[in-house]
Design a protein that fits this description.
It is a single chain. The chain has about 280 residues and is an alpha/beta fold. It is built from 12 helices and 10 strands. The longest helix has 19 residues. The chain has 2 domains: about 220 residues, TIM Barrel; about 40 residues, no CATH class.
Length: about 280
């Protein structure tokens, strides 16, 4: 059950913001990121869950985030907080709900059903985090679980813990998982975001990781600090010459269609529908 159309929008830089930090929620309205994830899970201690939930619900309802995609990461539904998170957030108007540590289709379907119970309208999308070995092995089925599922998010920190792996330059311990998840997202026609870079002092490593993710086919990168936004935006932004080339491809393709042709020729190269789709993206 592949999604028939990909949800195409800029997601070069998607920044986690702790839901318990009111100042961070306000600052997010001024940052040059494409999206924000207001976090009720890992970034919030158990004794602060209720207060953070109330604070995030109020922030989302108040709006003011402009073009930024607003996503709320809830706690899993099998925790003491997950359903309360969903009940508080579903009607406030976020763009999506992010479910952590997804390992099966059933978890997506359970969340989808719960959204209906708590008044989440049909425009409210689902995002799923892939951050365990079971999640990686099931990712092809997870990605196809629901038309409401629009984005996969790599959770490389938890994956490292589960694998007993180390974070090393080049990310060799994670390449299989990363590539498998990109493949699943593309097969399902949904977007996928790369995991976070933890070392805030390692600017060169961040740039390299962003460039690697873009080369692998990720749509953008999740971030943990505003200082990382510029590197992600640069790596996942098409170069000016790529944009101009895409416009020329589309112009050639549109002209061919207007003439009743199924192919076009541009600079001696064949242009077909697949090339037009790539150019449009």
């Amino acid at each position: 059950m592949s999604n028939s159309h990909e949800d195409i929008r800029a997601r070069r830089s998607v920044l986690y913001m702790p839901g318990a930090n009111a100042r961070a929620l306000e600052k997010a309205k001024t940052l040059e990121c494409d999206g924000i994830i207001l976090d009720l899970e890992d970034a919030v201690a158990p004794d602060q869950k209720a207060a953070a939930r109330k604070q995030v619900a109020a922030a989302v309802a108040a709006g003011g985030y402009g073009h930024r995609e607003v996503v709320v990461r809830i706690n899993r539904l099998d925790t003491p907080w997950g359903r309360d998170d969903l009940a508080a957030i579903a009607r406030t108007g976020p763009d999506a709900i992010l479910l952590p540590k997804v390992e099966s289709v059933d978890e997506i379907l359970e969340l989808e059903n719960a959204l209906g119970d708590f008044g989440g309208g049909p425009q409210l999308a689902l995002w799923a985090m892939i951050e365990t070995p079971r999640g990686v092995f099931a990712v092809d089925r997870i990605a196809d679980a629901s038309p409401r599922l629009k984005v996969l998010v790599m959770g490389t920190s938890d994956l490292a813990k589960e694998l007993h792996a180390r974070h090393v330059p080049g990310r060799e311990p994670f390449l299989y998982a990363l590539e498998r998840c990109v493949m699943a997202a593309r097969a399902a026609g949904i977007a996928i975001l790369d995991g976070v870079h933890l070392d805030l002092a390692d600017e060169a490593g961040l740039v390299a990781e962003c460039e690697q993710g873009a080369a692998m086919g990720f749509d953008g990168k999740t971030l943990i600090h505003p200082k990382q936004i510029a590197a992600a935006n640069a790596a996942f932004r098409p170069a000016a010459e790529e944009v101009e080339g895409a416009r020329r491809v589309l112009a050639a393709w549109d002209a061919a269609l207007a003439e009743g042709k199924g192919v076009a020729v541009l600079d001696g190269r064949l242009v077909e529908n697949l090339h037009a789709e790539i150019a449009r993206r």
